# Entry
Amino acid sequence: MEKTLSQRSSRPIATWLLLGTGMIIIQVLLGGITRLTGSGLSITEWKPIMGALPPMNEKDWTLAFEKYQQIAQFKYLNAGFTLHDFKFIFFWEWIHRLWARLIGVVFLIPFVIFLLQNRFKKEMIKPMLILFLLGALQGLVGWIMVQSGLEDSELLYVSHYKLAIHFVLALGLLCYTLWFALDLLIPKEQITVSKPLRKFTGFLIALLVIQLIYGAFMSGLKAAPAAPTWPSINGEWWPSNVHSLGGRSFPGISFLTDNPLVIHFIHRNLAYIITLLVFLLWLRARKVEGTNLFQKTKALSLLIVLLQVLLGVLTVLNPLNAKMFLWLAEAHQLVAMLLLLSLVWMLYIVRSRAVAIS
# Structure
C-alpha cells in the first residue's frame, strides 16, 4: 500500500517533468529557426520581465529598429532591411525568448504547488536544485552569446563556439529532465542488466554529443550550402585545400572547427559512423535477454538514426530553396534530439548491475 501511494504521489511530478522535456525540445527548435533566419541579434536588450512584451506601437518599433541598425549585422549584412523585414526576424527571437520565460513559469508554479503539497521526497531535492541551476545557466549563457554579437563590431552572427555551448547545455538540461522523469516512472523491475551494452551505449552518447557540436558548427557557420551534393562532397571524397577556403586561411588545426567545408565533411562522416554503431548496438541488444520494456524499445535508436540520415541528405541537397531548407534542417535537428533521448532511454533501462528494489 505504501509503495502504491508513493508511486501515485510521484506521478504528477513525472508528468510535469515530461511536459518540461517537450517544452525544452520546442525551445531548441525555436533556437534553430532563430539561427537559420539570422534573427538572434534582432533584440538588442535583455529585459527578463519587461522584455516579455514586443513593441506595442509604431514608435516603439522604430526605436527597436534604430537600435538594431547600430550593430554590425545590420551595417554589413542587412543594410537594405525595411521595418517590415526587421519585424520578421524580431518575431523569431522574441518568440524564442518568450518560450524560455514560459518554461520558467511552467517549472516554477508546479514546483511551488508540489512543495506545498509535500510531494517531494528527500532524494528529489538535490536533482531538483540541479534542474533549476541548469535552467538558469542556460538562460545566462544564451544572453552572453547574444551580447557578444551585439558588442563585437565585426561579428555578423554570434560565435559558432558560443552557439555550440548554448546548444549542448540545452541538450544537457533536456536529458537531465528526462532522466529525472524516468526515475519516477520506470519500475526497477523493468531494468535490464548488461554491463557491455551499457558501456557501448555510453560511448555512443559521447560520440553523438561530438556530432551534435559539429551540427551546431554547421548551423553557426552556415556550412550546409558549402557542399550541396551527395554522396560526394562537391565531387570529392576527401576535401582538398583544407587550410584555405574562399580567400580565408585556417592555420594550425583551426580548420577542424572553423572551415565550413571541413566541418561539413566531419559532420557527414560522423553520421555514417554513428549509424553503423547504432546498428551494432541493435545487434548486441538482440542477444540480451532483457525485460519486456527493453525488448519493445531496443530497435528505437536504429529506426531514428536511419530517418536522421535521410533528413540530413535531403537538407544538404536543398540549400537554395530557403523555406524547404529551413524546415528540413528543423526536422533534422528534431530527430537528432530524439536520437539522443532514445540512447539516454537505453542507458537508463540497461544497467551494469541489478538495481535494488525498495
Q: What stands out?
A: The first helix runs from residue 2 to 36.
